Amino acid sequence: MALAQAKTDTLRARTADLSAGGSGWLGAARRDAAARLAAMGLPTKRDEYWRYTDPASLTQAAPIPAALFDAGDEAPVFDGIEAVKLVFVDGVFDAGQSDDPALAGVEITHLSAVDGVDIHWARDIYGVLETRGQIPVQRPLATLNTAYATEGFLIRATAKAERPVSFIYLHQSETSDALIHHCIKIDQGAELTVLENGPAAARVTKVMEVEVADGARFHHIRAQGRDHERRAVTHVFARVGAGALFKSFTLTANGCLTRNEQVIELVGDDGVAHVAGAAVGDGTFHHDDTVFMTHEGLRCESRQVFKKVLMNGAVGVFQGKILVKPGAQKTDGYQISQSLLLDGDSQFLAKPELEIYADDVKCSHGSTSGAIDETALFYLQSRGVPKRVAQSLLVLAFLAEAIGEIEDETIAEDIRSRLEGWLQRHEH
Amino acid sequence: MLEIKNLHVKLEEEDKVILRGVDLTIGAGEVHAIMGPNGSGKSTLSYVLAGREGYEVTEGSATLEGEELLEMEPEERAAAGLFLAFQYPVEIPGVGNMTFLRTAVNAQRKARGEEELSAGDFLKIVREKAKTLKIDSEMLKRPVNVGFSGGEKKRNEILQMAMLEPKMCVLDETDSGLDVDAMKLVSEGVNALRDQGRSFLVITHYQRLLDHIKPDFVHIMAAGRIIKSGGPELALEVETNGYADLLAEAQ
């Protein structure tokens, strides 16, 4: 009872300045979420799902201030990629800095524009996929977002988009607290790439709900900013149709606390879902990838590829599950989580899980922690490669499988060069 | 070219002495072979010259063209002109062979104050050299030594040597794991690199490699010391009689 009371108190404090407002379908969805959240309460470290990551700083009333980061003259990630840029400053959309949201075959609407509207395609997605993602594990911070987010976009691709949509999240106030909620629908046969870059705020709670219709293709590539003190909890809820493709890659360099949850359902036959991440952290870096992959359709393929490079006491967490439902025959599920510990102070905590209710499936998972291969290092040095370059080569080689999940070579190269830059700045 | 004087080496982690006063002088353009029974310290000598960690030099020196090698980082030794062909070439998953070669070539050029090779020039040179070693473009694209056969790995070592154009080449049991044809191919690769300014130290168990790579001098190593030196005939003697007589003689 004491715990339940504590959860309720935390929730009351966290939501004191927020309002589940609005009318029409969106208002209804928010109120429904607020009610669901009240029943759940906010998570604590005593919840099994938060055992390795303390949610206290994410659930407390006000965010812990985060110093602003000066990236110097380094161009923002994806800067060279031609895209429709949508800029948020501390979690608030800034039309002045953004492109005109016009892209052939893609509807782009701000959340505020549908407030009070009775019917909109997004009403079958907003809060709906998030609600589905609450079983079997509760994700109250996602529900909090559904109930109180007023920022975000509703994006629907009806054809193959010529350019990506690029969200840019600037952090300009040390005490900002952002709630951002996007809904994305890729119609049958359509294709869209969504890029995300930036820390967003001192603290950000994000949800992206994605419906990938039959035969549609969705690519998601994000970088979470280099601010050392920012905290982020993000959720991707995706429903992947028959013959559809869902791919998501995340680069995390720095950040004090990051929890990236991805909940993906392969509901149609022959669907493909790949989620990958490369995380590099130094010192007070706590990075958590929590993935729940559900196979429902026949012959679906899923991959989870997560690599972390940790130094000076950094902590990496991976909780990854593959659930194969009864009848999901010929499932091909793969999961790998690995960490490269550059010193003895860092740690990696991994909880890989398989739960399989079909008898004709192929599922594998692996998890490793290791140091740089000294023999390989010497081999490279003996060929004249300076030690720091050799180390950087080996670290990039370690991350290669994750980066390899990015289909667009220009984007992959951008990510690779960011990692090289990070490694150069963190020579030891 | 290479001058080793009274070199004493022990393992860093344990009290095990491996080299007990090695003296060896290799002149420019000369090919020397070191033979000896297992555990005599041949491979240790090659690793110590290349700068591998785990060994402690307790006495002596090793200079390359007058420069003290033992105080340099492994990459500095390479830039100074030393090359070690590994007995067991290392697999490096995730690093493409071509990237590896180009990084190495350009790192050495940079260290020597030379201009880096352009991608085009590099490609042209590497293709030409790979062809003579029968290394196909597929092998160049694959990660370094991953999935290579024993022969392919050794050919890849020689390709690296050809690309880096070192002054002093140390070949550590380059013949191990090779069939007759592969040994011939590797030897041809080595012989093609022989010239006035380049010296070789060939470490081997068997005389047969020395049929292909003809040495000027042969040294017999035992218990961490060179116990006998001579011409090519010394290798034939070992092949016929084994090491027993030589060891007894040394004692």
Quick take:
The complex is a heterodimer of chains A (428) and B (251). With 428 residues, chain A is α/β, with parallel strands linked by helices.
Overview of the structural elements:
The complex is a heterodimer of chains A (428) and B (251). With 428 residues, chain A is an alpha/beta fold. Chain A has one domain (2-372). Chain A has helices spanning 2-15, 24-40, 56-59, 128-132, 140-148, 374-382, 387-403, 409-425, and strands spanning 84-89, 92-93, 106-110, 153-157, 165-170, 177-186, 191-197, 203-212, 217-223, 231-240, 245-253, 257-266, 272-282, 286-295, 301-311, 315-324, 332-341, 347-356, 362-370. The termini of chain A are far apart. Chain B has a domain at 2-91 and 167-250: Rossmann fold (3-Layer(aba) Sandwich). In chain B, a hairpin with a 5-residue loop joins β1 (2-11) and β2 (17-26). Chain B is built from ten helices and twelve strands. In chain B, the strands form three sheets. Chain B has a six-stranded mixed beta sheet with strand order 6-9-10-3-11-12, sandwiched between helices. By secondary structure, chain B is α/β, with parallel strands linked by helices. Chain B has helices spanning 42-50, 74-80, 97-111, 119-132, 137-141, 150-164, 180-193, 208-212, 233-241, 244-250, and strands spanning 2-11, 17-26, 31-35, 55-64, 67-68, 82-85, 92-96, 143-144, 168-172, 199-203, 217-222, 225-230. Classes of the chains: A alpha/beta (428), B alpha/beta (251).
